[in-house]
Amino acid sequence: MHQHINLPPEPTAGKLLKSANKFRVLLTAAAIVVSLLLLTGYTYWPRSPVQLAAGENMRKAGLYESWKKGEVVVLVRHGERCDRSDNECLGPKDGITRNGSQVSAQVGHSLSQLGLAQTDVLASPSTRTEQTAESLFGHPVASQDWLFDCQKMNLSQVMAHKASHRNLVLVTHSGCISQIESKQGYPHADTSEYDSAVFISLDKRSRPVIRGVLNPRDWKQLAMKAGD
Question: Do residues 142 and 122 make contact, with C-beta atoms less than 8 angstroms apart?
Fold first, then answer.
């Protein structure tokens, strides 16, 4: 005796269409949710450190007070590279341009207005960083090899060279700055401009934190605010 088995009816074309439409709606909703999450993430976790010249970012970060206390580290990228520009070279081809030297001198003037009495300066040993440092401060600056080895650079190494109660300015390369930014939560940060700087200071737990970026055109504005 054969047992009769009731099979479920085959779905009709209408039901298949309805299921497909439902799937498309769910897929669209999921895509919207993902987009909102990505947008929210971008809002709260920006691609690059904040621009310190915008609004009151410098004051909000407490950098004026931190500078007075000798608690700040500044990584400055060298000036305009001669081998990547049509502008006249300052000297050797592996150095910076005369235009770059002038911009560096302007940045140095603004930096001096913050006060350099308790500030140490080191530079990478490359021609372009040594020339930039001399343009920034008006005299040759001591160089150290670790400021050229960007692949191995980290924030602990940077802080190890900072003396207590003294600011530290490091004249280095975009690759080194990018390395520090990447390890501090900005892996996709924009490449540093010539003569731009990244400011670092300690948080309430005495941990070094990137406070933001200052581009060369904004240095003068920064120095003016410091005198307010």
Answer: yes
Q: Of 89, 70, 68, 69, which Cα lies nearest the Cα of 80?
A: 89
> Is residue 190 classed as helix, strand or coil in its secondary structure?
coil
Please count the other Cβ atoms lying within 10 Å of the Cβ belonging to residue 164.
6
Token pair 């530290």 is at which residue? 168
User: Average pLDDT of 164-169?
Assistant: 96
Give pTM, 2 decimals.
Answer: 0.78
Q: Give the pLDDT confidence score for residue 77 in this predicted structure.
A: 98
% pLDDT > 70, the chain:
78
Contacting residues for 184 by C-beta, under 8 A, at least 6 apart? 155, 209, 210
State the helix-helix crossing angle for 98-114 and 219-226, rounded to 10 degrees. 20
Q: Residue 7 pLDDT more than 60?
A: no
What residue type is assigned to position 34 of the chain? V
